[in-house]
């Protein structure tokens, strides 16, 4: 079930980027469209929190949490803004391929060093898989072609 959900969400990401890019083109640009996207998502998640009766505040003080914990939202905002900005020039396919490549390379490094999770060494098979992603991204993006 988790694999199917991940595939569906992955399939929706280029559509989200295209929708946000169109919203930006029809309104005040990529930053405005990214804000609207996050606002709609925040409202939906807030409604879901209320519907599931999830406490809005954690059991511990927010000040007790490490400062880096807030980076998740900042990274999400950076992704939505960058995707909204880049899709019109790169295209959805190239942008998503480059994002996936960045995710694979960073994930291998983060897993290898056990950053915020269990350590999973970057063995030869995983590195070969990353090389295949590099080749796949290059074939979709085709940086050797102009225009």
UniProtKB/TrEMBL annotation:
Chain segments annotated as transmembrane: 31-51, 63-86, 92-113, 125-144
One Pfam family linked to the record: DMT_YdcZ
The organism's place on the tree of life at top rank: Bacteria
Entry protein name: DMT family transporter
GO cellular component: plasma membrane
Entry-linked PANTHER family: INNER MEMBRANE PROTEIN YDCZ
Keywords attached to this entry: Membrane, Transmembrane, Transmembrane helix
Keyword Transmembrane helix tagged: yes
UniProt-listed InterPro entries: YdcZ (IPR006750)
